[in-house]
Amino acid sequence: MTTNHKMIARDVSVFYGDKKAIDSVSIDVDMENVTAFIGPSGCGKSTFLRTLNRMNDTISIARVEGTIELDGEDIYASGMDVVQLRARVGMVFQKPNPFPKSIYENVAYGPRIHGLAAGKPEMDQVVEKSLRRAGLWDEVKDRLQDSGTALSGGQQQRLCIARAIAVDPEVILMDEPCSALDPIATAKIEELIHELRGRYAIVIVTHNMQQAARVSQRTAFFHLGTLVEYGETSEIFTNPRQEKTKDYITGRYG
Ligand SMILES: Nc1ncnc2c1ncn2[C@@H]1O[C@H](COP(=O)(O)OP(=O)(O)OP(=O)(O)O)[C@@H](O)[C@H]1O
Ligand SMILES: [Mg+2]
């Protein structure tokens, strides 16, 4: 693996009350490689993903141990500005969740609260650039004032990606971003992930092993809150080192 790690997680454990959901997981995330998290339902993929931008803070009974660094900076340090952190480490959810506002506003909202555009012309540019990067511009450029919720599911998900991109993130976390989408919309998101690779560090949780194989270069296999195996995607799928990984990828359980 490269040494150019964007995020480094070391010995991360997560508790919900007394229950340990993640047990001492260490993982690195980098810009060049898309990282996929796979594993059976309930194994802790979403829980671990949420530690990377402190979304677990919003769950009162959740507690995180261990260290997670973004560019060498401890994101759980007391001085960390969590709003700023979540702009740097953006998130896209399973169900597309645009705001009930215009397409334009969905994208402009973040840059406005973070003070990233000086005036209307600059904001127009940020909105266009973000929609272009999310592969949505051509489909919406003539209807920017229409409601974001009026778009198709796949378009809504790309709008959510544009919204994440608009605040100039360094890392984008995606939690099963295609599970509510049809195969064509899914293919578009997968293509987009290929295009965004290298510009952002991308982590994607997926139930779909073909998808993990298609979009990622690194795969992490979780089981019962532990990280069983983490390595090159091609290795994980063709030559896993752990018996549990082999069982999972050959469909023996999960
Ligand atoms: N908010 C919560 N409060 C209490 N327990 C939770 C909470 N969220 C998750 N858990 C528990 O933590 C464990 C891991 O859940 P998590 O949602 O991270 O799994 P997952 O791998 O993302 O599953 P799925 O593939 O079904 O999305 C499960 O046992 C789950 O019940
Ligand atoms: Mg999940």
From TrEMBL:
Domain ABC transporter: 7-249
Organism: Sphingobium boeckii
Gene Ontology molecular functions: ATP binding; ATP hydrolysis activity; phosphate transmembrane transporter activity
GO cellular component: membrane
Pfam family, one: ABC_tran
Name assigned to this protein: Phosphate transport system ATP-binding protein
Record keywords, A-Z: ATP-binding, Nucleotide-binding, Phosphate transport, Transport
NCBIfam families named among the record's database cross-references: 3a0107s01c2 (TIGR00972)
CDD domains attached to this UniProt entry: ABC_PstB_phosphate_transporter
SMART domains reported in the protein's UniProt record: AAA
UniProt xrefs under PANTHER family: ABC TRANSPORTER I FAMILY MEMBER 17
InterPro entries: AAA+_ATPase (IPR003593), ABC_transporter-like_ATP-bd (IPR003439), ABC_transporter-like_CS (IPR017871), P-loop_NTPase (IPR027417), PstB-like (IPR005670)
One Gene Ontology term from the biological process aspect of the record: phosphate ion transmembrane transport
Domain of life: Bacteria
Protein's UniProt keywords contain Transport: yes
